[in-house]
Amino acid sequence: MAYMKKQNDFTKEIAIDTGSGLVGAGFGLVVAGPPGALIGGATAPILSDVLKRFLSKKEKSRIEKVAELANKIIQKQISSGSKPTENAKDKKIGELFEGTLLAAKDEYEDKKIPLLANLFGRAPFTNTPIDNLIQSLILADQLSYRQLGVLSVVGRNQWENCFNLSSKPLPYSSTGRGTPDEKTQGIYEDVNYLLVLGLIGQVFVKGARPAVASGTHFIAPVNLMLLYPGMLLFNGMLLDEVDKECTGEIIKALKWEPKE
Fold first, then answer.
1. Are 178 and 166 in contact (CB under 8 A)?
2. Domain ranges of the chain
C-alpha cells in the first residue's frame, strides 16, 4: 500500500515496501544458516556476542526471531532489485543492529518484534541517517504496541483522510455529555504521551505549523498528524502492518464524541 510516491527517504516513503535488506556482496553481508547465525559478515560478530551473554530461553528466542525476520526482509529487498545506499557502509549500522537485538531481548510484546525487524532491515536502503534511525529505535523501545498503532492510524488518516476521526476533545466533565469508556480514555492517554514525546502534533488552523499541545482535553483527533520522528517510525517500522484488531480499537476510540 503506497500513501505517497516512493522516495528513498523515510520521511517521504510511506510504507510501500514490505521487504527490506542488509545483504549482498557489495555490503559484505551474507545471510545463511540457522537462527543464531542468520546474518553474517559485518553483523555476525555482533549477533554472536549478544547470544553469548547470559540470556533466558525466552530472551534468546526473541533475539533469534528478530534476526531471522530482518534477514528475510533483507533478502526480499535485494531480490526485488533494491540497492543499498551509503547507509550500508556506515559503521553505525552495527550499532543499530546490536540495539535492535537488545530491544528485542527485553520486548515482552511479541507483536513489536516484526516491527523492530522492519526498522533494521530497511535501514541500508534509505538515505535517512543511521543516527536518526538509532533515535527511532530508542523511541520504539519505549512505546507500547498500541502506541505504535496510534501512530499507524494517525499516519494513514493524515495521507488518506479515511477514518472520519472526531473533531471534539474529551469533555472535562461527564455531566449531560456522556463519558468515554476506560479503553477510550487509555487510548487518549496514549495520544497525549505521543504528543509529549513530539512524535505527533495537532494542526488547529489550516496551513499552520502543527502544535504540540498536550492534555487529553485538548486533543481533537482529526487534527493529529505525524511529526518528523513519528514519520521515521511509521515508515521505518512499516506501521501499516499493525494488526487490524489493534487499529480498529484505536479508530473507534478516536471517533468517539460526547453526547450533546
1. no
2. 41-142, 145-254
- All three cell numbers of 53, joined, read 551473554
Give 9-36 pLDDT, tens digit per residue.
Answer: 666 543 322 233 333 323 334 333 333 3
Residues contacting 116, CB < 8 A, separation 6+: 66, 100, 103, 104, 107, 137, 140, 237
Contacts of 162-165 with C-beta under 8 Å, sequence gap 24+, read 163/251, 163/254, 163/255, 164/255, 165/221, 165/222, 165/224, 165/251, 165/254, 165/255
Contact indicator for 189, 172 with CB cutoff of 8 Å: no
Report which listed range, 2-11, 90-99, 164-173, 222-231, is most confident.
222-231
Helix (H, G, I), strand (E, B) or coil at 248: helix
Of residues 26 and 101, which shows the higher confidence score?
A: 101
- Predicted confidence at residue 9, as pLDDT, reads 65
How far is residue 98's CA from residue 30's CA, in Å, rounded to a whole number? Answer: 17
Spatial separation of the C-alpha atoms in residues 32 and 118, rounded to whole Å: 19
Contact of 199 with 151, CB cutoff 8 Å: yes
Q: pTM here?
A: 0.80
Alpha helix segments (H runs only) across the chain: 44-52, 57-79, 92-105, 112-122, 130-142, 145-160, 182-197, 228-236, 244-254
